[in-house]
Write a structure and sequence with these properties.
Layout (H helix, E strand, L loop, with lengths): L1 H11 L4 H17 L25 H14 L11 H22 L5 H16 L4 H11 L2 H11 L3 H14 L5 E3 L11 H10 L1 E2 L1 H11 L18 E6 L2 E5 L4 H15 L5 H23 L4 E4 L2 E4 L2 E4 L3 E4 L4 E7 L5 H5 L5 H25 L13 E7 L11 H15 L4 H5 L3 E4 H13 L2 H8 L9 H8 L1 H7 L5 H7 L4
Parallel strand pairs: 2-3, 9-10, 10-11
Antiparallel strand pairs: 1-4, 3-4, 5-8, 6-7, 8-9
């Protein structure tokens, strides 16, 4: 690994840190937001295509480059990654390491696991955070129980955190620096609150460099080493004698207030229960918002029931129309980071897949009770039923290395518990991230539950998540009928910027 890494390290040691990170920022904003690049950073071929990825530069490689610049580049140097040629040389150095390290350290038996971790590295960049994503977390975190935890942890309430992040992200479209202290003349957020935000989500450069060095891995996981800027997206930097904060990768700031707060609070007392309840409530609000647009869907919330002396809870939501029923189980848990990236050991991944399997088994246990007539608020209508496991995050479970294991765990568990395995074949389940559920329910409202889900649960599509199926079969419906839900929450944040 050292001989592979040494040329890139030596090259970056000759490049000025600030100018090189300015280039990273410019390319990230170009790829994610369509911001025009300065001519010096472009290749002549870019004049003839609108495909931003044609020349082979991707956000995940820029993330790696940013990390390596912080680790290796001096504050001042005679040269910098400041034009196309120097950037291409650095990116090609990263590509070479990734290609060669697999041949040197990789295991052919783990190639399917490599596809799994590639999806976790690349797909979030290919599906950048949107307005609905930001609204979703805003609505969840501003519930009273969670807002108290957020405020205690960050020093700021949710109703301040999210508008500030939007405001700063808008500012970063123009460049990577934020002058300090911030002055606000646009809305009611006080200057000290703005500066509390900056201080809470930033590091000194020496701290950033130390954390980067501590996180670095020189093995098969090298490209997946954590970038500390994901946790603290800004770092302090003197620019022309004045204190500034630099944000080389602005999407990290938005992710920090969504994914980041979740991972930061997940172990806090009371968090899991409060977050699970808020997420379940949010899924119900999605169905209600869709019903308000087109009243073809109805929903039944969770309630308790008893079998003999055993108290139980029904499925979280039953969503119905005249064609079929969705049995919706809501799970806010996210896959831990180690399970997404570690190729040295599959222990963490296997543990997470067993957890996901337990969610599916839970849905089939209660479906069995419902079909047995034990639900007090729902009776079987002799119509199709589709169990759907709605997760907060996309687990990217597909293929034999992951979905194959999940199916195996589910069948073994249900068989051991005496639940009829025929339910799995008669009522096949669907794994679905909540952003897919938001789109899917809108399509179902204009088509029907059965039309959407019958195709989803048959043939090859059965192994897909819901999103790819919708884009394959209902692309025109998505264009015509899918809109942003919860506009009032978006308006609440936008006028404060």
């Amino acid at each position: 690994m050292y001989q592979l890494y040494k040329p890139l390290r030596n090259y970056l040691r000759q490049q000025s840190l600030i100018e090189s990170l300015i280039t990273v920022h410019a390319w990230i904003q170009h790829l994610q937001s369509g911001i025009d690049l300065p001519t010096r950073l472009t290749h002549p071929q870019m004049r003839y295509t609108k495909d931003r990825y044609r020349l082979g530069i991707s956000e995940w490689e820029l993330d790696t480059l940013c990390r390596e610049i912080v680790l290796n580049s001096p504050l001042r140097a005679a040269s910098a990654i400041s034009d196309w040629a120097s950037l291409a040389k650095a990116i090609n150095g990263i590509k070479l390491i990734e290609e060669e390290v697999w041949g040197e350290l990789g295991d052919a038996e783990k190639i399917l696991l490599e596809l799994h971790r590639l999806s976790h590295r690349q797909f979030p960049w290919q599906n950048p955070m949107t307005q609905p994503d930001f609204i979703r977390y805003f609505k969840i975190f501003k519930t009273p129980e969670l807002d108290a935890l957020v405020t205690a942890n960050t020093g700021l309430p949710t109703v301040d955190l999210f508008p500030i992040a939007l405001s700063i992200s808008g500012h970063l479209l123009r460049g990577p620096f934020v002058a300090y202290p911030l002055n606000n003349d646009l809305n009611s957020i006080p200057n000290d609150v703005l500066n509390t935000f900056i201080e809470r989500f930033s590091l000194s450069f020496s701290e950033l460099q130390a954390r980067t060095k501590a996180a670095q891995q020189y093995d098969i996981n090298w490209a997946y080493s954590s970038n500390p800027l994901r946790d603290r997206p800004l770092f302090q930097m003197q620019v022309n004698g004045a204190l500034n904060y630099m944000c080389p990768i602005p999407p990290f700031l938005m992710r920090r207030l969504t994914d980041g707060i979740y991972y930061e609070l997940v172990g806090s007392p009371g968090f899991s229960k409060a977050f699970g309840s808020a997420f379940q409530k949010y899924v119900g609000e999605v169905v209600e918002a869709v019903r308000m647009r087109k009243a073809t869907l109805t929903s039944l919330p969770e309630c308790e029931y008893r079998i003999s002396s055993n108290r139980k809870d029904t499925i979280d939501w039953i969503v119905e129309d005249s064609s079929a029923s969705l049995f919706v189980e809501c799970k806010a848990k996210r896959m831990i980071v180690q399970a997404k990236i570690d190729l040295n050991s599959t222990e963490a991944l296997d543990k997470e897949l067993k957890t996901l399997s337990s969610f599916i088994c839970q849905a089939y246990r209660t479906l069995s009770d419902a079909l047995g007539g034990h639900y007090p608020h729902w009776k079987f209508r002799d119509l199709p039923i589709y169990p759907v496991i709605v997760t907060l995050d996309d687990w990217y479970v597909f293929g034999p290395a992951t979905l194959g294991k999940v199916d195996k765990f589910v069948r073994e568990t249900l068989e051991a518990e005496g639940v009829e395995l025929s339910l799995l074949d008669k009522y096949p389940y669907t794994l679905c991230a909540v952003h897919e559920f938001e789109v899917g329910t809108q399509v179902m409202a204009f088509r029907s539950i059965n039309e959407v889900m019958r195709k989803k649960t048959s043939g090859e599509a059965h192994t897909w998540s819901l999103g790819p199926h919708l884009r394959s079969e209902f692309r025109d419906d998505i264009k015509q009928h899918v809109d942003m839900l919860f506009r009032d929450d978006w308006r609440f944040m936008r006028p404060r910027i």
